[in-house]
Structure formats: structure tokens, C-alpha cells
Amino acid sequence: MLHYVTTNDGKLREARAYLGEDAVSGYNFDYTEIQSHDLEPIAAYGAREAYRQVGEPVIVDDAGLFIDEFDGFPGPYSAFVEDTIGIERVWTLSEPLADRSASFRCVLAYCDGGAFKASPDPIDRDDRVTAAATGATADEEESQPLPVKLFSGAVPGTIVEPRGSGGFGYDPIFEHDGTTFAEMTAEEKNALSHRGRALAKFAEWFETR
């Protein structure tokens, strides 16, 4: 059984839409979220830690809202910003910007304790991202890293005044092609969302695993 390490029912529904209703289960585990300006190391570290806890194949994701004029902020700190100041204040800060371009980005990390043959090589330590994804943590030997396979997805949009009652998180202030994510049905959002795009790549690869 594949375990999606999340307590967010919306994420789990999205994963099941791509992987099958009975193919993935939710798993509640409070893995360590390391501090990083990039999503990849955060998701990879969580996947390794979650695999050690579960002992079976796991997927962990890290996602964020990246606002161009804020140099990508809040990015990996999106959940913290949402919890502390709320999405309405993010809109208030963004409203005066001449360019409110932004993107939702997601990185999905998979770990099952085994090695991967798929490219890019997940143990290529010459690459910063994949090295972070497979490097040994403080409690494991450098010679025995746990490989992690990464899948990314992104969708461009614009920050707007909150609209809509659906979705979760920043969905009400993120507009794509004239419609906020909160104004879309779950099916419409899943078809183009950043997480959906990462899940689609993962689902295609996972069929060969």
C-alpha cells in the first residue's frame, strides 16, 4: 500500500483521483520540516523520515505560493504565512503591486527504501537538488543513503482579491485564466493544479515501479 503522509483530506482526494481510490491511503505522521528556500530538500527529507516510520512506500509533498515581485515569497513558508497573517493580508500586501504574477508549485517525494533506475539519477551528488534528496541525514551513515524520487508541478496565475468558497489555503486569491482556484470544482482544479501536475507525473512513473 502506498501511503500519502498528510492530514489534508483535499490532498488525499486529489491523489486518489490520479492513483485510484484504493491505491493510496492517508497516513498521519508529523515528520520534520527542515528550513530551506527550496521545496525539494524539504519534501525529500520528510519522505526519508516518513519511510523509516511507516516501513512501506510513502509520498510526501511540499508546496507553496510563489509571488514573483516578492522574489518567490512566501514559497516554502506559505503554510506559516497563512497561519500567522492569513491570506487576506497576503492579498493586501500584493494589491499595490504593478505585477501580481505568481505561481503555485509542488514537489512530490517518493521513497520505498529501494534504488531508482529512472533519470535523473537520484544518487547523483553532483546535482544540488538530487544530492539533497538522497544525502544521509544526521542519524544515518553517509554510505547508506535512502534514495528519494522527486516529481514537480507548477501552474501560473495572478494574485487577486479573495473570491470563491471552494478549495483550501490560498485558493481564493489565486486566479488562473480568469477563475480563482476557490471558484473551481474539485475536478476542474485537479485537472490543472500544481499538485495534480506533480501527481500525474508520479502516477505515470509509479505504474512502472
Short description:
The protein is α+β, with helices and mostly antiparallel strands. 33% of the residues lie in helices and 22% in strands.
Beta-strand percentage range: 15-25%
- Element-by-element helix/strand order: EHEHEEHHEHEEEHH
What low-confidence regions span 5 or more consecutive residues with pLDDT below 50? 118-138
Mean pLDDT, to the nearest integer, reads 86
Give me the number of helical elements.
Answer: 7
**Rg, Cα atoms, Å:** 17 Å
* Percent in helix: 25-40%
GO biological process, one term: nucleoside triphosphate catabolic process
Keywords: Hydrolase
GO molecular function: nucleoside triphosphate diphosphatase activity
Organism: Natronocalculus amylovorans
Provide an overview of this structure:
The chain contains seven helices and eight strands, in the order E-H-E-H-E-E-H-H-E-H-E-E-E-H-H. The chain is globular. Strands 1, 2, 3, 4, 5, 6, 7 and 8 form an eight-stranded mixed sheet that branches. The protein is of the alpha+beta class and 209 residues long. InterPro entries: ITPase-like_fam, RdgB/HAM1.
Primary descriptors:
alpha+beta, globular, single chain, Maf protein, 209 residues
How is the secondary structure organized here?
Blueprint: E1 2-5, H1 9-19, E2 24-27, H2 39-54, E3 58-67, E4 74-75, H3 78-84, H4 86-94, E5 101-111, H5 128-134, E6 149-159, E7 174-176, E8 179-180, H6 186-192, H7 194-206
Parallel strand pairs: 1-2, 1-3
Antiparallel strand pairs: 3-4, 3-5, 5-6, 6-7, 7-8
